[in-house]
Design goal:
With about 200 residues, the protein is of the alpha+beta class. It contains five helices and ten strands. The structure holds ligand VIB.
Amino acid sequence: MQNNSCGTSRIAGCQFTLLPMSDKFVDIIMGALDEVDTSNIWKKTDDVSTCVRGKMEHVFDVTQALFLHAANTGEHVAMSGTFSIGCPGDTEADAYMDGAETPLNEATSKQISQQAGCKFSLYPMGREDYMDTIYEQIDLSKHRNVEVSASHYATRLDGDVKAIFEALHQSFDSVQEKVSHVTMTFTISANSPSNKT
Ligand SMILES: Cc1ncc(C[n+]2csc(CCO)c2C)c(N)n1
């Protein structure tokens, strides 16, 4: 079996798209990508999405900060993406696996208070007992300062953006401790003019 470990931590990543429902979408996307400190992760942006790769805590810190910056414009903004860890072959960004654990955007993100709704789905790969792992995480997310509700093919989390990302991070982290290859999809939306139903 291939060894996907780099030192003590494994490379994680997230491929995501920011979707500002605004004619200022270019400024909102590029402004967020400019303002957020991405110096401790590998990053590539194209016409469809942005991919960040590196230590798990930095991947979550940067993804959360980008959404917060975009939503802080007051516009209706959504973000959709996939987190992944243990993907066979994902060993390229070794340079980004060294260095400090402290997330670089924590202080700035702390200053932004923003409510949002999110739907997420966990995919523990290659495991017959995958449903047990998923149900365990749904139960745990009920203790994480977010409102949790069932949704088809996903679990819905409502609350402060930082509490939502913390719940996503904790779910993903505890599954990857037991399962080598894990992916997690999510869509988060803030400032929507629609009512939650
Ligand atoms: C996070 C993120 N990265 C890339 C895109 C793709 N994209 C769509 S419009 C635009 C700005 C002008 O080119 C870019 C980069 C996205 N939506 N969100």
